[in-house]
Amino acid sequence: MSDALVIGVLALQGDVREHLVALAAAGAVARPVRRPEELAEVDGLVIPGGESTTISKLAVLFGLMEPLRARVRDGMPVYGTCAGMIMLADKILDPRSGQETVGGIDMIVRRNAFGRQNESFEAAVDVKGVAGDPVEGVFIRAPWVESVGAGAEVLAEHGGHIVAVRQGNVLATSFHPELTGDHRVHALFADLVRARRTAESL
Ligand SMILES: NC(=O)CC[C@H](N)C(=O)O
C-alpha cells in the first residue's frame, strides 16, 4: 500500500475542481469519485458545494448513496461544504420532495438560509481548530444549522447561526474555503484523514 493520503471529491455536480486543487495543496492525492469502486479506494471524501437536490438525486442514480452511508458509518472521514453540508445532515428542515441525505452529523440544516444567490457574501469566520487569522468565509446560497444534537460539536458561528460542525470524522461548513486560496480547513480535514488511517493501521 502506498503512503500517499488519497482523498476523493464526490464529482456528481458542483465545484469539484476547486476542492481537488485545495486538497492537493494540503498535501493529499486528490481524485474525483463517481463510482462505488472509486469510493472504495479513497481514505477520505469531500462533498462539494453545488445543488444538494441534484447531488442527492445523482448519488441515488449512480448507486452511491448506500455505499456512502456505509463508509460514513464505518468511520471514513468526510468533509462537506455548503450543499455538501446539507448532504451530511441527519435532517433537512425544508427538503425538496424525495431529497435524501447521506447523514453522519446529528444536526438539522435549513437550505438557502442566508438568502438567495444575489445575497451571497463573504465574512471572517473563527473556526475552532484553525489557528491564526479567521477564515474568509464565502457564503453562496448557504445553509445554516438550526440545531445540533449532543454528539455534534459546533466549530463556528456567524451572525448567531451555526456554520461549521464536526461529529467524529465528519466535518461540515456552510461556506466554501476551496474558493479562497486559504487551504487551512482542507489541511485540518487532511489531518483527520491521516489520523484515521494511522489508527486503522495499528
Ligand atoms: N453553494 C451551495 O452549495 C448552495 C447550496 C444550495 N443552496 C443547496 O441547497 O444545495
Automatic annotation (TrEMBL):
Pathway: Cofactor biosynthesis; pyridoxal 5'-phosphate biosynthesis. It comes from the Bacteria. Keywords: Glutamine amidotransferase, Hydrolase, Lyase, Pyridoxal phosphate, Transferase. GO terms for cellular component: cytosol; glutaminase complex. GO terms for biological process: L-glutamine catabolic process; pyridoxal phosphate biosynthetic process; pyridoxine metabolic process. InterPro entries: Class_I_gatase-like (IPR029062), PdxT/SNO (IPR002161), PdxT/SNO_CS (IPR021196). Coiled coil: none annotated. Pfam families: SNO. This is Pyridoxal 5'-phosphate synthase subunit PdxT. The lineage of its organism: Bacteria, Bacillati, Actinomycetota, Actinomycetes, Kitasatosporales.
